[in-house]
Predict the 3D structure of the following.
Amino acid sequence: LKADYVVAYAELHRQLVLGPQADDRRQRLYNDPRLAALNTLSAIDLLNRAELEGWKEALLRLPTCREFHEGVIADTPTCPSCHLRPAQHRHIGRADQMLDQLDNRLSDLLTRWRQALQANLTSETAQRSLEAMTPAERRPIEQFLDQRDDDPTIPAGFVAAATQALRGIEALTLPVDGLLEALKEGGLPCTVEELQRRFISFVSQNMRGHDPRNTRLTLDR
C-alpha cells in the first residue's frame, strides 16, 4: 500500500509542480526578450498594464520544487520541500501545460500590443502629429512601424516618441518677416546677448497659449 501511495503521489507531484528543468524554463521567461519589450511598452498609457501584471503574477504563482524524488516521501506523506497536498490542487491543471500557456500568452500579448500601437500610430490624429515632429523624433516610430508584429526589439526612443505622437503634436509656424523685424528692433548692430534676448522674446510671444511639450516650431517660406 505504501509503495502504491509513493507511485501515485510522485505522479501527481510531476503533474502539479514544476520540476528542475521546467523551473529553469520558467526562470528563463523572466529574461525573455518578449517580456523586456512588454516592460518597455507598458510605459505608454494606451496599453493595459494590468494585463502584463496579471501574466507576471500567474508565472510567479506556478508551484515549483527542485528537490523532489520518490525517496523523500519514504517516511512522510507529503514532499518536505514544497508540502504538496494534491487534494488542494483538484481544480488546477498540469503545471507544465500552464507554463506552455503562459509562454504562448507572452507572444500573444506582445503581438496584440504592437498591433494596437500600429493602429493608433497610423490614425489621422497621429499622422498629423508625426508631420509636426522633427525627423529625429519620427525615426523610432517609423522603425517600429516597419517591424513585424512579433518582433521583440523596440527601437531606442520609441516610447517617448510614441507618447508624444499619441497625445498630439502641434506645428506652430513662425513668420520669417516678423522674426527679422523682432531681431532688428532696438537697432543694429547689437551684442550677441541682445540678439539672443530679442529672439527669445519673439518666440515666447508666439508661444503664448501653446504647450511647449507638444509644440514644434517651423518657419514660413
